[in-house]
């Protein structure tokens, strides 16, 4: 306690460093009222109110500090309970994306879940310990990174593969586009989401359909096309082979768009003729600024692309998408933006459509081949919702328009009926 001439002083801790104390003289006159833009009467009123709030005779008591410290202590003690009981309540989701694309309507009104359809995701792998992925029907897994197929894991530091699987097949707090689909995972990308050799991705693509029996291969990956030979990569060759065997391939258009880019087309293998190349839009339907721009020709001076194979074919939600993430996080969900996310929404919608028309359109059904792929792609082109910004023709960034899964299914149904009648 202070003694002598300074005993009337009070000491308050500095907010930035509580170890430092500042001496306060309650009797000091302070600055005149006009220094604060107040009249003398107004200043006296504030002074009286402050004294009443802080204690009798104007003695200051740091009740605010005590209350804050107490609340922080309670919060720290109760944090685990709060996370356990309220994380699902306050965790955001991307339900808007499923509603805007019509996927939610196909699920609710048609009862579709993707059951019986095999989808292969080539990515960094998957962490099935996530609570929303416990019920994933994993029917195939191969690790092209570590070679250990017995240990299902996600090699990605950002859990990219786990996020993509979540968009497609989550069944918990988040519900994916096709939670009933048979999921195949090919771990072909390393910790940074890339591969040291495109041969690895090509091998993964080939394995998906030739050994794992995939009906759809989803590729949320890609590389810049080579202007000299845009379709000559091993990955593109593997994709073309899959298409020739009636396997549907959906791939990210790429995140190479925007000002200053020198990339002249969508990514490889999205640039392959029969692939469905997917760009990204936000919640309001606006084009994501980095979604890739397609080329009207296949490479420099190549053949002009014709409907329904102009690039990209479609855009889908790909901005601020919430999905399953690392289980080391207190709330294991993350937000992601890019054409990778948009790709999986189209993959999921296609899985629902193939479930409804499985015997007609799948390679394990009745004579599925490249003809069926062209039919589905033409139905996609006919059913997309066109933006006012793109006009009536194919747009080099919007494609044929944004995904409408319900209209796409109806267009496929009509095309099948017309083909049967012919």
CATH superfamily of the largest domain: Peptidase S8/S53 domain
Mean pLDDT over all positions? 84
Work out the number of β strands: 11
Would you tell me which CATH topology of the largest domain applies?
A: Rossmann fold
Tell me the domain tally.
2
CA-atom Rg in angstroms: 30 Å
CATH architecture of the largest domain: 3-Layer(aba) Sandwich
According to CATH, what is the class of the largest domain?
A: Alpha Beta
Low-confidence stretches: 5-24, 52-60, 82-88
SSE ordering? EEHHHHEEHEHEHEEEEEHHHH
- Strand arrangement within the widest β-sheet reads 4-5-3-6-7-8-9
Tell me the major beta sheet. 7 strands, parallel
Count the helices. How many? 11
> Structural class, please?
alpha/beta
Note the overall shape: globular
Quaternary organization: single chain
What proportion strand? 5-15%
Question: What gap, in angstroms, lies between the N and C termini?
Answer: 101 Å
What is the percent of helical residues?
25-40%
Describe this structure in words.
The protein is α/β, with parallel strands linked by helices. The protein has 2 domains: 4-61, no CATH class; 95-421, Peptidase S8/S53 domain (Rossmann fold, 3-Layer(aba) Sandwich). Helices cover 34% and strands 13% of the residues. It contains 11 helices and 11 strands. The strands form 3 sheets. The protein has a 7-stranded parallel beta sheet with strand order 4-5-3-6-7-8-9, sandwiched between helices. Strands 1-2 form a two-stranded antiparallel sheet. A two-stranded antiparallel ribbon has the order 10-11. α5 (160-169) runs parallel beside α8, α8 (339-356) packs across α11 (405-421) and α10 packs across α11 (405-421).
